Amino acid sequence: MATEIKPGRKRLTLGSVGADLLLVFWFVFSLFPIAWMVLLALKTDTEQTTTYFAFSPTFDNFGTVMSQRGTDLTSVDFAGALVSSVLNCGGAVLVSLLIGIPAAYAAGRWKYRGSEDLMFQMLSFRFAPELMVVVPLFVIYNQTGLFDTTYGMIWVLQLVTMPLVVWILRSYFQDLSAELEQAALLDGYTRRRAFVMVALPLVRPGIAAAALLAFIFAWNNYVFPLILTDSNATTVTVAVTKFLGGGGQAYYNLTAAAALIGALPPLLLALTIQRYLVRGLSFGAVKA
Amino acid sequence: MATLEITGVTTRYGKVVGVEDLDLSVGDGEFFVVLGPSGAGKTTTLKSVAGLVDIDAGRVAIAGRDLTGVEPYHRNVAMAFESYALYPQKTVFENLASPLRSGRTGSYSKADQERRIELVTTTLGINHLLQRFPRELSNGQRQRVALGRVLVRPADVYLLDEPLSHLDAKLRAAMRAELKQLGEESNTTALYVTHDYQEALDLGERIAVLRHGRLVQVGTPEQIWREPADTFVAKALGQPEINLLDAVVDDGSLVGAGAGGAVAVPVPAGLDLAAGERVRLGIRPRDIDRAGPDDRPAPGHLAVRGRVHLAERLGRLVELAVHVGDTELIMVASSDHAAEEGDLVDLHVDLADVHVFAAGAPGEDTPRLGGGVPRQRRPAEEPATGRAR
């Protein structure tokens, strides 16, 4: 860059200070529940209902949650729920990508009778409250043997992840000039190879974004695993709530610790693919 | 290296017509230019040949082979897109190697690929950019890479969509000369689309003029220039635009209206016009000569006197707007004997350079009267094209 824009020193006015204060207030306000959860996760059983900030923190709760040592909550297999959550959500996102990428490409490239209706139909799966479909699904799952299985969860989570993947990626494919693939066709490549060689690498940031969002949505889903699983394929969201009672005493500190652990996988995934997300932003700016 | 036959091709985008009932016959090795304003269907014509759009009627044949239903990658045509369509994630070298690596344009060893790429990039002046990405190039450089991706490979037909449009004026002239030479040497049939009439006249062995998706005229540059089929073609070629004057047939002459009888042209032989009939006269600015006040017009020349209303310098040339009576004639004069605004000037025009068109409302395009080139209808009627090789 020949010219560099230097950030000027911000003038301190009553308005700007006020705005900053407002932002700080909002920041504290919105982060407070998370901070409170962290504090709660570090408290002992006896202190779990206290509201003071000065206490001697302990990391035992995390160990307890992962192993259920020393509690009466022997029915909570949190580590197992963590594993099946990863399997369910990872599997759901993988299936959604495998089917959704070609679907999004087709939807973005070709118009045919009813193509818009089809896309809208897919989006409409997200309109209906999950509670509306979950009861009939429960009956079906019970009769078909899909109840409390990873396959069953991967299948039902498609309702959550597939529309996201298709809709996000369709707009990425639409933004991509069709002439790029046409050039590849004239270079002597088949349509399949033109897609793989030209279109697919260019929407990689979109795939990363769609996969991350789909994973988070699937991870946070509560109703489907609550109704459609028992102990084999139950997920973090359901397992966390078990610490709140059922066995007599509610363990708020364990619940908080479990929730913190449960929030880690999506966070790790986001950090891992952040590189592609950011590249996606800069890529759009200099698109040839 | 093949002939290209386009027969009755109609391509629509929904209800919008891209091209309609288009007939073109391009000879083996011919450099054929398609000229027209934007939206005339030029790109659609190319994409119909390439098989990138589905044609709704008619057929396209290369080397006598009907291409209906043939996939683009089996057509053995190469195309330079107006949008360049370079692969953003590949370097210039990889972009140029792409057609050589597909296996459908012939098989090339690594050394072959490099030699071909080296050759074509040297010609195009981009051989120092091979390791760059398209986003690191200027538009002119990208356009040359796009052209290179076509020229690097053999093909039956080259389809070139405004391949020089984004180059600056000097480079464009140089590349035009280069392309002309390439066209003559490679002997590959080429369909070249442009909206620049100079490019068309310079490069085309023949030119097709399109308007609103329809073919208006096909002919050699000489034919298109000398005998435009209608006022649209006449206006499309030449800058400044051709002068169009309304005229009335009177006593064997075509008398320009509003010029006080100053513009009077004998009715050309072979034109059957009744007295009182209205026509339009077309005179190209470059066909008007400035004469000295005492020069007598040569036989077969029209002499007009008018007053310079506006003089606009264009470097070596001066564009003059001359008022003759109530009408205005635009002419181009050399700046050596430039006229000042307000000067009286004498103008001579060779009668052979006066075009006669049917009368029409302002802005309406009307056909040439007599002596026109018949619109190409069927390939069979077309005189043998294709150069001796």
Automatic annotation (TrEMBL), chain A:
SUPFAM superfamilies: MetI-like (SSF161098). Keywords: Cell membrane, Membrane, Transmembrane, Transmembrane helix, Transport. Its main location: membrane. It is a multi-pass membrane protein. It comes from the Bacteria. GO terms for biological process: transmembrane transport. Belongs to the binding-protein-dependent transport system permease family. This is ABC transporter permease. Gene3D superfamilies: MetI-like. Residues 82-273 form the ABC transmembrane type-1 domain. It is found in: Cell membrane. One of its GO terms (cellular component) is plasma membrane. It holds the Pfam family BPD_transp_1. The chain crosses the membrane at residues 21-42, 78-106, 118-141, 153-173, 194-219, 250-273. InterPro entries: BP-dep_ABC_trans_perm (IPR050901), MetI-like (IPR000515), MetI-like_sf (IPR035906). It comes from Spirilliplanes yamanashiensis.
From TrEMBL, chain B:
Keywords: ATP-binding, Cell membrane, Membrane, Nucleotide-binding, Translocase, Transport. It holds the Pfam family ABC_tran. GO terms for cellular component: ATP-binding cassette (ABC) transporter complex, substrate-binding subunit-containing. Signal peptide: none annotated. Residues 360-389 are annotated as: Disordered. It comes from the Bacteria. SUPFAM superfamilies: MOP-like, P-loop containing nucleoside triphosphate hydrolases. Residues 4-237 form the ABC transporter domain. Gene3D superfamilies: 2.40.50.100, Nucleic acid-binding proteins (2.40.50.140), P-loop containing nucleotide triphosphate hydrolases (3.40.50.300). GO terms for molecular function: ABC-type transporter activity; ATP binding; ATP hydrolysis activity. This is Sugar ABC transporter ATP-binding protein. It comes from Spirilliplanes yamanashiensis. The lineage of its organism: Bacteria, Bacillati, Actinomycetota, Actinomycetes, Micromonosporales.
